[in-house]
Amino acid sequence: MLLKVQEVYKDFSQGGFFSAAKKPILKGVSLELACGECLGLIGESGSGKSTLGRMLIGIEKPDWGEVLFEGRNIYRSPGWRQQPDWRRKISAVFQDYTSSVNPRFRVDKIITEPLYTHRLASGSKAMERAVYLLEKVGLGGDYLKRYPHQLSGGQLQRVCIARALATNPAFILLDEPVSSLDVSVQVQVMDLLDSLKKEFQLSYLFISHDLAAVAYLCDRALFFAEGRIVEAVERIAELGQVKEAYSRKLLYSVLDFSDQLADYRCGREEGSRLA
Ligand SMILES: Nc1ncnc2c1ncn2[C@@H]1O[C@H](COP(=O)(O)OP(=O)(O)O)[C@@H](O)[C@H]1O
Ligand SMILES: [Mg+2]
């Protein structure tokens, strides 16, 4: 198993720094992710999905419970931050691509930064890798010298995906990666994520409040509500057959959108432009 989460709990303090009041955000969450698998995590805003996501990439320590990556406990292994070969295997792409990048950096610097941080490449080798990665995300070397404000949302998210791939990760946290994009662009970016997953044998945790997107990309899915997994769907084709009241409520709220996505899929087959 690539990633294993065992009974994690997390409380956040409420009412400011000096307040002792605590609000439970994660209430005993367990999950597993195998190599090459895409697991969907579906839940409403505020249910704790991003907190769980941050826990998986090593930046949110659980109050209780374990997070194991390749069998090693990432919060209890001494010096894990100093183990570049291990750390480089975990990457992330977030919803807000604009605040994920430094607006003063050109694309080449955005993509090569993790190569320098992890001491994987520098100079012309790093630049060659940036061109390779830009091609992999459907952009190409022409984009190297652009600034973020000179790119569309879809193009900037592709740059963020290239940066996430730079260190050859095994796992990428995708926290609402298409939620800020137009629906037609969402499908293109999901197709890209799907083909990269196959080409580089990646595992994803795909966080979304959007069932149509989860159905499109994931192998299986978890319904998440108020800090708990309320239902697991082992075969994504059965996403429409969830039983829990909460899962059904979410399902009905997106049925209209599924139709919209189906329309775009048809449009894409007729030949779509890169956005
Ligand atoms: N660092 C933090 N300090 C205090 N509260 C937080 C912190 N991070 C998240 N929260 C709270 O935890 C809850 C869940 O947030 P989040 O994990 O972002 O949910 P989701 O991604 O499902 O929308 C929210 O009520 C949010 O305000
Ligand atoms: Mg979130």
UniProtKB/TrEMBL annotation:
This chain belongs to the protein called Nickel transport system ATP-binding protein
What keyword terms does UniProt attach to this protein? Answer: ATP-binding, Nucleotide-binding, Transport
- Kindly list the GO molecular function terms attached to this UniProt entry: ATP binding; ATP hydrolysis activity
In the UniProt record, does the keyword Glycoprotein occur?
no
Where does the ABC transporter domain start and stop, copy by copy? 3-251
Concerning CDD domains, the annotation shows: ABC_NikE_OppD_transporters (cd03257)
| InterPro entries, A to Z | AAA+_ATPase (IPR003593), ABC_transp_ATP-bind (IPR050319), ABC_transporter-like_ATP-bd (IPR003439), ABC_transporter-like_CS (IPR017871), P-loop_NTPase (IPR027417)
User: Could you tell me which species this protein originates from?
Assistant: Dendrosporobacter quercicolus
What family does the Swiss-Prot or TrEMBL record give for this protein?
Answer: Belongs to the ABC transporter superfamily.
Q: Which Gene3D superfamilies match?
A: P-loop containing nucleotide triphosphate hydrolases (3.40.50.300)
Pfam families, sorted:
ABC_tran
GO annotation, biological process: transmembrane transport
